[in-house]
Structures are given as structure tokens and as C-alpha cells.
Automatic annotation (TrEMBL), chain A:
Keywords: Cell membrane, Membrane, Transmembrane, Transmembrane helix, Transport. It comes from Belnapia mucosa. This is ABC transporter permease. It holds the Pfam family BPD_transp_1. Residues 101-291 form the ABC transmembrane type-1 domain.
From TrEMBL, chain B:
Gene3D superfamilies: P-loop containing nucleotide triphosphate hydrolases. It is found in: Cell inner membrane. Residues 6-256 form the ABC transporter domain. This is ABC transporter ATP-binding protein. InterPro entries: AAA+_ATPase, ABC_Ni/Peptide_Import, ABC_transporter-like_ATP-bd, ABC_transporter-like_CS, Oligopep_ABC_C, P-loop_NTPase. It is a peripheral membrane protein. Its main location: membrane. Keywords: ATP-binding, Cell membrane, Membrane, Nucleotide-binding, Transport. SMART domains: AAA (SM00382). GO terms for molecular function: ATP binding. Signal peptide: none annotated. Belongs to the ABC transporter superfamily.
Automatic annotation (TrEMBL), chain C:
This is ABC transporter permease. The chain crosses the membrane at residues 12-31, 100-121, 133-156, 185-207, 242-270, 290-314. It is found in: Cell membrane. Belongs to the binding-protein-dependent transport system permease family. Keywords: Cell membrane, Membrane, Transmembrane, Transmembrane helix, Transport. It comes from Belnapia mucosa. Pfam families: BPD_transp_1 (PF00528), BPD_transp_1_N (PF19300). Residues 94-307 form the ABC transmembrane type-1 domain. PANTHER family: ABC TRANSPORTER PERMEASE PROTEIN, DIPEPTIDE TRANSPORT SYSTEM PERMEASE PROTEIN DPPB-RELATED. It is a multi-pass membrane protein. SUPFAM superfamilies: MetI-like. InterPro entries: BPD_transp_1_N, MetI-like, MetI-like_sf.
């Protein structure tokens, strides 16, 4: 078969799958695409930190206390260039940030996923069961949302103590309500649609209706909320760690790195706090850029 | 002979949107003398409201007046600087809007909204301004105006609010009032009262009134002259009785035929087939030809706006010369 | 209006009750109250006595009633660290926090309203786009880090503003205030701006959205048709309508601002409730934590009530519904 026959064949009408359409709509915004690339790069750095970081900041053998608080670009005692300077322990800031990103992203994503599972289940339950279950769950949601996240998390950690798992737990507690509200909202709309009624008339099992029919339709808003909540969780974790209530010193996240530099700030040694802050900022902004565009693309109200 | 109060000549108001140029008003001409009423008639989207906003210089970007003249006592408003235009607005030329529920600011008291109008154009004290506001409310038949001045718009019914809007328009006894379907949103009985009120006041003050409406029966009872708009153009104009009894343009005829009372009992209502065309990229020639029962190849050329009978113009190459059989 | 107030007060009381139950459960049921409420330095005899005194040998529901009764009399326990009633400690530091939060709110309105107004009136100008882009940054920037950067630039590098503390204060009505002295104001600027950061972005966005929506309203066009000056149309007709949603949101945010002042106070060593609570958490001074939590809940409810009333004063439509 020659190439000419292929070219001569009538071009089949181009059918875009919803996913392809979603991809092309998302890519329409350059700045969102930039955010996505940035975010993926950050994730890659975090994942690959043990392999690409110049130094293992946890390995005390590699640290030289004589190299403490060196300015960015200084060459240390071991002939090693500290591009972003060192902290009070003589740790390379660049490596510290890479490892810190790991913790920050892990806590942010982990809490978001658990909160999403918990919240989405409760929201779905509220929408599907209705009645008293619904109003009980929604009262809880209202109560949760009316109380500032930072305070609730602060109190939980105050009683539980520091630790990565405790932070994740606290973040889940303050975030599940957003997911629950989102899922309940869209599930209630979908529930009234005829196709659900049709499914019920066919006596399909409830489980099947929920997972095959209701859930897929609640997914778009859930993804949007989820993206934004990851950014929020990362920022909140950093704040809590900065206040000394988050992750332990042995597993420093970006927030804790910034806190470590606080006392040296006043003597002009800005880099210990500055660079981890920039890393934190870039991470949050990149997620928000992606989230903004997702919201525009996935929002059915904005669809023509 | 002195210049008429308002003369619109070949007005073009276009909206320069991303999708192309929307010619909302494209060659509109009419004249209104002092104390007379012009009925500006057309379907929604025909450009009547934009014509009204053009007269007051209230067309917002991306729209602007792209051509023609709006002569107010001989002065061209289309080229008047904004500062001078503002001096005329609400003072010599006033407007009444369609939806009385939306025209009054919900968070300001009636007295605030009236006094600011008085003080925008007359250097008078607050007390004096309040006095004038009170008088204006009395004129439009609002009982106990003193009390009413202290109220907020939401405490009024729709008809009352429209009276307040009319009172505001009348504050400076303007030379021209543009009324944009001011009775459409009201009950029929209130509609009648407002119409009578408007007619009386305009005659009393010698105000030239441009009454924009889609309702031919309103025009029949109120107007002296009529201008029928279709797709941004005036397709027919003339003295009201003449146009309604013997329309030249097929579109005017169609409009008259669509009024239930003009039909005989038992006969099916006549309708104009099809829909108003999109104003974006209108084809050349007569815009009505796709719906016109008399369309012919010649209609693809832009028809001239010609005087077929004394004072009665039409934009059609094959007008109905016979009287309507009704 | 009275019926409306009464209903709101009953609702508020219900929320306080629920929150007190939650706090009680958090402290007394989940944690070990002996460990929480009795200083770790106490010896066996003191412990026994304290358990009796605190009624910890009673059943849980009786304990709750006792807790509630004490709380109603203003007794929320004594601080281990300061050996003072926890409530008094909190109240002593409240003016500093309120001052900071009010300063932040005022700053947010002063900065946010004009910028939002401009961005709404001229949505396509480059400056407006810049304002909106910056406001996105305001949402993304971690507050505590911005605080550090402010200190670094304005206190350390430029030396223009002091970095920590409240500075000189004046005592009025038995409370110390910073904003009445020059030195106090200098100390207040950076923390207030830092705390305002998020709110400035919020006010800009709300104002811009409100302006754009309101400008399309018939009554704005009618106001212009009356021949009013653009300034009058903008500042009276448009602005007054926008003020309602902005005031509501900013008011509701006030509670959040007080909560978030925990972070700002820690960064700037501002001696308010937030700094106290962080210090208390770090030394496990739990009665103070309980007292703080209850105070915050009360504050929140008060704020909600005040916002509702303000709202009804601003919007005549709401006011009338309340009356009839």
C-alpha cells in the first residue's frame, strides 16, 4: 500500500475524546502550562532528591560545623561550593531545600488524598442518604468551615504533639469538609438527573450507581478543589512547622528550614530563610496556576 | 423655520466586538418636534434601545457612534464633548428606562436620588432641591410625597417606581425625553395610567417625546409619528395614522398583522415567518428579504429610503401601495 | 429587629455550648486531664488533692457540668507557668491582638478598595492586570515568610522600622494601646501589613468583581442618564452597593484575622493572645489553651453577630425584613 492511497482516503471526521478536549483546553493557557511544567519539575526534584542533591543533609558525617552559616556561593572547607549557602549546622541549603520539598509535598499530597477520600465518602453519603444523615454531616461541615483552619490545626497539634503523622491528621481534619461540601453539591445535582432514575429503575445495585454513575460526575469539581487544597495544605504545614508545632527537627520541611533561619535573619544572614521560602512560594504558585486553569476548563458553567 | 427639537440623521452606532462589527444602529433618521411624540417601533434586537442611548451619549465601549448626526436644536450631540453632553443629560434630555425595578439604586433613598439630579444641573440649596423633588412627585400622581421621599425603592411597587423615574426625568422640564419601553414591565391598568400621564405632561411642557416600544397599540394611541426599525435600520416612517392604515413596507404590514386585535375573530393570527437575523455580518441588501413574502432578486441590492407618499418613507423597492384590508 | 436579635443570640448560645463540649471532650476525654490540668512538677499528694478539687473522680457528664459551671463564672483554670487565672492572661493580651487585627483590616480596606475599584473600572488597562496578578501572589505567599522578608528589608537592611514588640504604649480605659504613639505606630506598621496581605488580595478581588457587576446595572446607567458626574456615579451609586458584600466578607474574615495573628505575632514578637497561645503550647500550659479556645469561640460568635447587624444597617432591604 502506497502513501498516496492513505492520503486519498477520505479523512475520517476527527472525533475528540473528552480527555483530548480537556488536554487541548488546558494547554490553551500558556501560563497554566508553565505552572504545570514547573510543578512537575518540583515533584521530580523532590522525588529524585537523594540522587541529585549535592549532599545528604541528614548524614552528619558529611557536615562540617566549621562551614556553618556560609554565604551563598562560598566554597567550604571540603572544597565544596555551597550555591545557596549553609545553615547553622553547616548544611548545604540547596540539598536541604530538595529534601525539605520531599517532606512538604508528601505531607501536602498525603493529607489531601486522605481528606479527599474521607470527605468525598461523607459527602456522597450525605447526598445519597439525605434526611437526618445529610443534615448531621452538613452541620459538621459548617462547623468545621466556620472555624479557621490554622486554629483547628494548631489545637489538634497542641494536644497530639509534633510528628509528620500528626500533622497529616490535623490537615485531614481541617480539610475534609471542603471535599464533602463539593461532592455533596454535585452529587445532589446529578442525583436528580434522569439517568440516575433510569439506573435505579433498572434495579442496579446502589454501589454500582454511586461508583459508576454518580462519582464520575462529581470528579471534575473534586479535582479542582483537590488541587487548590494541596497548595493550601502545603502552606498550612509550612506555617505550623514554622510555629514549631509541625514536623520534628529530624525531618525538616520547608517551613522548618525557614524557621531555623529566623534567628539569623536579624544579623543579616538572610539566605537560611530566604531560599526555602522561595521554593515554598514557587511550589504553591505553580499549583495554584494549574488549579486556576483546571477550574476554568472543568467548570461546566463556563462551557459554551 | 427654526430647527426641530430633535433630528436624528443617518445615525450609525456600531459595536466593535472581537467577533466582528455589530451594526446595532445602521442608518436611522427621524425628527421630533416640540410637544410631539414619536413612536420608535421594532422587535427586540432591532436597535431601538441603542438608538435611545446614542441620543443621550450613553453608548459604552466597545460600542460607539460611527456616523451620522444627532441634532438637538441644531447642535450635533454626536460630536459634543462629554462635559457638555453631561450638562444636557438629565437636564435638557432625559431618559426613562424599561424596567422600573432596576432603574432606582436600591441602597439610596428616593430623596437622595432626586436631589442629586436637581443639584447636578441647578445651583440650588438642598432645601430648594427637595422642594422641587416633592413637586415632581406630586406631578406624577404620587400621594404624600414628603413621606415617600424618605423611602427606599424597594418600598414601592413597580408602577410607583416608574412614576418616580418619570418624576426624576421631569425634574428639569427637559426638551426631549427618551422613554425606553417604560410600560412593558407593568400591569395593563398601570400602563394606561402612565401613558396618559406621559402624554399630558409632554403636551403641558412642550417636551419632544421619543417612545420606544414593540407594542403597536401603544403607539397607535400615543404617538404622532412612527418610525419602524428592523435590524438596525428604519424601514418605514411617517405620520402614525397613515403608516398604520396604509403601511408601505412588508415588515410593517407583518407587524400590524401580528397584533391580535387587528385580526378578525376566528381567523388565524398572521405571523412573520423566521427570526430576526444576527446583526453580526448582515448580508448586503434588504435585511428583511429572507422573511419577506415579496422578496425578489433586486432585494439583494441595498434599497433606498424613499418617500412614497407625502411624509411617509420606506426602505423597500416594492412597497405595498394599496391600503391594508383590515 | 428584636426578634431577629433574639434568634441570633439563641443560635450563638447553642454554638458556644457545642464548642464547650468539644473543648471539654478534647481536654478531658481524649487527653489525660490529670496530665493536662495538673502541673507535671506536682507530687503525689498534690495530685490526689487536685484530682478531688477538680472533680476528676466524678462521672464524665458531671465533670462536664462542673466545667461548664466554672466556665460560666469565668473560671477556666490557672496557668501553670504564670500561676494566674488563664482567662485574665488572655484578656490582658487581647487589646494587643485586637489592635493588630483592626490595623490589618483598616490597611486591607485602605489599600484594597482603591486598587479593586480601579481594576474594576478599567479592567483592560495594564495597571489593572498588574494589580490582579499581584493579588494572586497575595493569596499564594505564605504569611510568615512575607513577615520575615519584611523584617529583613525594612528592619535589617534599611533600618526604617523596628522589627519586634509593640513599642511605646498609652494606657486608656485600663488597656495599653500602641496606635496612639509615634513609636507604637512604627511598631504596628509591619505586623499589620503582614497580617493584611491576604485580606488586601481578597478586598481587591471582591471590589473588582462588584464594580464590574454593578457597572452593568440599569441604575448605574440611569444615574449617568441623570447627568451626574462620573465621580458621583462611581463613589455614591456604585461604591455604596459594593460596600455591602465587601464589609460582610471583611467582617466575617475578622475572626480569621484574629486567628491568623498567631502567625504574625510569632514573627514580629507582638505580645498578643496569639503569641501567648504559641508560647503556652510550647510549654504545655493547657489551661491557657482551653481559655484561649473558649475566648476565640466567643469572639467569633460576637463578630458574626456584629456583621449581621452592620449588614442590616447598610442594606435597607435587609433592615426592613428585620422590622416587619
Amino acid at each position: 500500500m502506497s502513501t498516496t492511497t492513505i492520503a486519498a482516503a477520505p479523512a475520517a471526521p476527527k472525533v475528540e475524546t473528552p480527555f483530548q478536549r480537556f488536554v487541548s483546553e488546558f494547554a490553551a493557557s500558556r501560563i497554566a502550562l508553565f505552572g504545570l511544567v514547573l510543578f512537575l519539575a518540583i515533584v521530580a526534584i523532590a522525588v529524585l532528591a537523594p540522587f541529585i542533591a549535592p549532599q545528604n543533609p541528614y548524614d552528619l558525617a558529611q557536615l562540617d560545623i566549621m562551614d556553618g552559616r556560609l554565604e551563598p556561593g562560598t566554597v567550604g572547607a571540603g572544597g565544596f561550593t555551597y550555591w545557596l549557602g549553609t545553615d547553622d549546622q553547616g548544611r548545604d541549603m540547596l540539598s536541604g531545600i530538595m529534601y525539605g520539598l520531599r517532606i512538604s509535598l508528601m505531607v501536602g499530597a498525603g493529607s489531601a488524598i486522605i481528606a479527599c477520600l474521607v470527605g468525598a465518602s461523607l459527602g456522597m453519603l450525605a447526598a445519597y442518604a439525605g434526611g437526618r444523615t445529610d443534615s448531621l454531616i452538613m452541620r459538621l461541615v459548617d462547623l468545621q468551615l466556620s472555624f479557621p483552619a490554622i486554629l483547628a490545626a494548631l489545637m489538634i497539634l497542641a494536644f497530639l504533639g509534633k510528628g509528620i503523622l500528626n500533622v497529616v491528621f490535623a490537615l485531614v481534619i481541617v480539610e475534609w469538609a471542603y471535599y464533602a461540601r463539593t461532592v455533596r453539591g454535585s452529587a445532589l445535582v446529578e442525583r436528580r438527573r434522569e439517568y440516575i432514575e433510569a439506573a435505579q429503575c433498572l434495579a442496579l445495585p446502589t454501589r454500582r450507581i454511586i461508583f459508576r454513575h454518580l462519582l464520575p460526575n462529581c470528579l471534575p469539581p473534586l479535582i479542582v478543589v483537590g488541587t487548590m487544597q494541596v497548595a493550601r495544605a502545603i502552606a498550612l504545614e509550612a506555617t505550623l512547622s514554622f510555629l514549631g508545632l509541625g514536623v520534628p527537627i529530624t525531618e525538616p520541611s520547608l517551613g522548618l528550614l525557614i524557621a531555623n533561619g529566623y534567628e539569623y535573619m536579624l544579623s543579616g544572614k538572610y539566605w537560611i530563610s530566604f531560599y526555602p521560602g522561595i521554593a515554598l512560594l514557587v511550589t504553591i504558585v505553580s499549583i495554584n496556576l494549574v488549579g486556576d486553569q483546571l477550574r476554568d476548563v472543568l467548570n461546566p458553567r463556563l462551557k459554551r | 423655520m427654526s430647527a426641530p427639537t430633535l433630528e436624528v440623521r443617518n445615525l450609525k452606532t456600531h459595536f466593535f466586538t472581537r467577533g466582528g462589527v455589530v451594526k446595532a444602529v445602521d442608518d436611522v433618521s427621524f425628527t421630533v418636534e416640540a410637544g410631539k411624540v414619536l413612536g420608535l417601533v421594532g422587535e427586540s434586537g432591532s436597535g431601538k434601545t441603542v438608538t435611545g442611548f446614542s441620543i443621550l451619549g450613553l453608548v459604552d465601549p466597545p460600542g460607539r457612534i460611527a456616523g451620522g448626526q444627532i441634532l438637538f436644536k441644531g447642535r450635533d450631540l454626536a460630536t459634543l464633548p462629554e462635559a457638555e453632553m453631561r450638562g444636557l443629560r438629565g437636564n435638557r434630555i432625559a431618559m426613562i428606562f424599561q424596567d422600573p425595578m432596576m432603574t432606582l439604586n436600591p441602597v439610596l433613598r428616593i430623596d437622595t436620588q432626586m436631589i442629586e439630579t436637581v443639584q447636578a444641573h441647578a445651583k440650588v440649596s438642598r432645601e430648594e432641591a427637595r422642594q422641587r423633588a416633592r413637586d415632581a412627585l406630586g406631578q406624577v400622581g404620587i400621594p404624600s410625597p414628603d413621606e415617600r421621599l424618605k423611602s427606599y425603592p424597594h418600598q414601592f411597587s413597580g408602577g410607583m417606581r416608574q412614576r418616580v423615574a418619570i418624576a426624576i426625568a421631569l425634574l428639569h422640564k427637559p426638551d426631549v425625553i427618551v422613554a425606553d419601553e417604560p410600560t412593558t414591565a407593568l400591569d395593563v391598568t398601570i400602563q394606561g395610567q402612565i401613558l396618559a400621564e406621559a402624554q399630558k405632561l409632554c403636551a403641558q411642557f412642550g417636551t419632544a417625546l421619543v417612545w420606544i416600544t414593540h407594542d403597536l397599540s401603544v403607539v397607535a394611541g400615543l404617538a404622532d409619528d412612527i418610525a419602524v426599525m428592523y435590524a438596525g435600520k428604519v424601514v418605514e416612517s411617517g405620520p402614525v395614522a397613515q403608516v398604520l392604515d396604509a403601511p408601505l413596507h412588508p415588515y410593517t404590514l407583518g407587524l400590524i398583522g401580528s397584533v391580535p386585535s387587528r385580526n378578525h375573530r376566528g381567523e388565524p393570527l398572521r405571523q412573520i415567518p423566521g427570526m430576526t437575523p444576527s446583526l453580526l455580518n448582515l448580508p448586503a441588501g434588504c435585511a428583511f428579504r429572507s422573511r419577506c413574502p415579496r422578496a425578489e432578486p433586486g432585494c439583494a441590492e441595498p434599497p433606498p429610503f424613499a418617500e412614497y407618499r407625502p411624509g411617509q418613507h420606506a426602505r423597500c423597492i416594492h412597497p405595498h401601495q394599496e391600503a391594508v384590508a383590515a | 429587629m428584636t426578634a431577629f436579635l433574639l434568634r441570633r443570640l439563641i443560635q450563638a448560645a447553642a454554638v458556644v455550648l457545642v464548642m464547650s463540649l468539644l473543648v471539654f471532650l478534647g481536654v478531658f476525654a481524649v487527653g489525660d486531664p490529670i496530665e493536662i490540668l495538673i502541673s507535671p512538677e506536682a507530687d503525689q499528694f498534690e495530685r490526689e488533692r487536685a484530682i478531688k478539687a477538680l472533680g476528676l473522680d466524678l462521672p464524665l457528664w458531671r465533670q462536664y457540668l462542673v466545667f461548664l459551671g466554672n466556665a460560666l463564672r469565668g473560671d477556666l483554670g490557672r496557668s501553670f507557668v504564670f500561676n494566674e487565672p488563664a482567662l485574665r492572661l488572655i484578656l490582658d493580651r487581647m487589646p494587643a491582638t485586637l489592635e493588630l487585627a483592626v490595623g490589618a483590616t483598616v490597611a486591607a480596606l485602605i489599600i484594597g478598595l482603591p486598587l479593586g475599584l480601579y481594576a474594576g473600572l478599567k479592567p483592560n488597562s495594564p495597571l489593572s492586570k498588574g494589580i490582579m496578578a499581584t493579588s494572586i501572589l497575595g493569596f499564594s505567599l505564605p504569611t510568615f515568610w512575607v513577615g520575615l522578608m519584611l523584617i529583613m528589608v525594612f528592619a535589617v537592611q534599611l533600618g526604617w522600622l523596628p522589627s519586634t514588640g509593640r513599642g511605646e504604649t498609652v494606657t486608656i480605659l485600663g488597656m495599653r494601646w500602641s496606635f496612639l504613639t509615634r513609636d507604637g505606630i512604627a511598631h504596628l506598621i509591619m505586623p499589620a501589613l503582614n497580617l493584611a496581605l491576604f485580606k488586601i488580595s481578597l478586598v481587591i478581588r471582591l471590589t473588582r468583581a462588584g464594580v464590574r457587576e454593578t457597572m452593568l446595572m440599569d441604575y448605574v446607567k440611569f444615574a449617568r442618564a441623570k447627568g451626574l458626574s462620573p465621580a458621583r456615579v462611581t463613589f455614591v451609586h456604585v461604591f455604596k452597593n459594593i460596600l455591602i458584600p465587601v464589609v460582610t466578607v471583611v467582617g466575617l474574615e475578622f475572626g480569621g484575622t484574629i486567628a491568623f495573628s498567631v502567625v504574625t505575632e510569632s514573627v514580629f514578637a507582638w505580645p498578643g493572645m496569639g503569641k501567648l497561645i504559641i508560647d503556652s503550647i510550647n510549654v504545655l500550659d493547657r489551661p491557657v489553651m482551653v481559655a484561649y479556645l473558649m475566648m476565640i469561640v466567643l469572639l467569633f460568635i460576637t463578630i458574626n453577630l456584629v456583621v449581621d447587624i452592620t449588614y442590616s444597617l447598610l442594606d435597607p432591604r435587609v433592615r426592613l425584613e428585620g422590622k416587619s
